[in-house]
Design goal:
It is globular, with a radius of gyration of 17 Å. It has a domain of about 120 residues: Rossmann fold. A six-stranded mixed β-sheet has the order 6-7-8-3-9-10, with helices on both faces. α3 packs parallel to α6. The longest helix is centred in the last third of the chain and has 16 residues. It has ten helices and ten strands. It is of the alpha/beta class.
């Protein structure tokens, strides 16, 4: 479904990605790992058309999307749950979900606002609340729901559980397990590697804008030296 081939990206004179490579098959869950500042978010932005690529190629479902505009990339079926949630403070929960709902790719069991409320009952209780009136955990649920109602073929979650209370984190992990069971293709950035290895099929560790290691969850579980060397845990 997704191939990133030798991608290089920079901000002005500061190069961030130095030949990134990864691939993802339909229905797989990938953990994208690495310490802060190693290039994970820049890679995501480069995939989504939010950051220009200097060289290399991004291919989605056999189509070259390198340096396509973000709106075109989104229409092809990529969605993001961004770091920091980025909900609209002056839109209600219901308005968020209604504004973004779409089923361009004719899913047989599409995500709708009502399905999101079933997934996150806490949002249903607050459907009339504005984005600015939600807690951080509720905003993260809303950001996930907002991405889901676009019925994406690939969904990317950047810092999926960062800054959330333990009970809310459990809600997010439950959601990710459900999405995996339903066959949703996912890329998940999260620092809780011990939880991510139970959900993801394989992982890519990013170090200074390059792939430092790639492998499946069992290999990552078995090699705790990788955790210490690259993940700081």
């Amino acid at each position: 479904m997704l191939q990133v081939r030798d991608v290089q990206s920079a901000y002005g004179e500061s190069q961030v990605l130095f030949g990134m490579d990864l691939s993802l098959q339909p229905g797989e869950v990938m953990g994208l790992l690495g310490r802060n500042g190693m290039g994970k978010t820049t890679l995501i932005r480069s995939i989504l058309g939010l950051k220009s690529v200097q060289s290399g190629q991004v291919v989605f479902d056999g189509r070259d999307i390198t340096n396509q505009t973000a709106d075109r990339v989104a229409r092809l079926g990529l969605a993001v749950v961004p770091e920091g949630r980025q909900v609209f403070p002056n839109l209600s929960v219901d308005e968020h979900l209604t504004a973004f709902v779409s089923n361009r790719h004719q899913s047989r069991t599409p995500w709708t606002p009502e399905r999101v409320y079933e997934l996150f009952p806490r949002l249903a209780e607050r459907r009339a609340n504005m984005g600015s009136q939600l807690s951080g955990g509720e905003q993260q649920m809303l950001a996930i729901g907002r991405a889901l109602v676009t019925n994406p073929r690939l969904m990317i979650l950047d810092e999926a559980t960062e800054g959330l209370a333990p009970l809310i984190r459990e809600e997010i992990w439950r959601c990710l397990r459900l999405l995996r069971e339903e066959g949703q293709t996912l890329i998940v950035v999260d620092k809780y590697v011990n939880r991510l290895v139970d959900i993801a099929d394989h992982h890519v560790i990013v170090e200074r804008g390059q792939v430092a290691w790639a492998g499946d969850s069992q290999a990552l579980k078995d090699n705790r030296q990788l955790w210490t060397r690259y993940l700081g845990v």
